[in-house]
Design a protein that fits this description.
Layout (H helix, E strand, L loop, with lengths): L4 H5 L2 E2 L11 H11 L13 H16 L6 H4 L1 E2 L5 H25 L4
Parallel strand pairs: 1-2
Length: about 110
């Protein structure tokens, strides 16, 4: 028997829950750009156009999903307006921390 996520936990918010179309896809997609090069991504090194197109497509899909016809079936609700600036700051912090750790590992010659 299949049980809807709504039947178990009620509607989920992409602000609080890491769903495939919400906050999970964006950080993981952006981290690929940080770890693919020894340089500073987007500043000293740009990815190929297929990777950039894939990244933008995944992020656009994740942003569109709460407004899509699939949202209610997935138990998603539209995020509040404050969600987007918080997400942008979180992504920037996550990418910066990953870059700092990558540089530290490179200097130690561990990667």
């Amino acid at each position: 028997m299949l049980v809807s996520a709504n039947a178990v936990s009620g509607p989920r918010s992409v602000l609080l829950d890491q769903t495939p179309g919400g906050t999970w896809t964006n950080p993981q997609t952006l981290i690929i750009h940080v770890i693919r090069t020894n340089r500073i991504p987007f500043i000293q090194s740009r990815a190929s156009w297929p990777l950039m197109l894939t990244t933008l497509s995944i992020m656009a899909f994740g942003m569109w999903l709460p407004w899509s016809p699939l949202a209610s079936a997935l138990g998603l609700v539209r995020p509040p307006g404050l969600y987007w600036p918080i997400l942008a700051l979180t992504l920037l912090a996550y990418m910066s921390l990953t870059q700092v750790i990558k540089v530290w590992l490179l200097r130690k010659k561990w990667i």
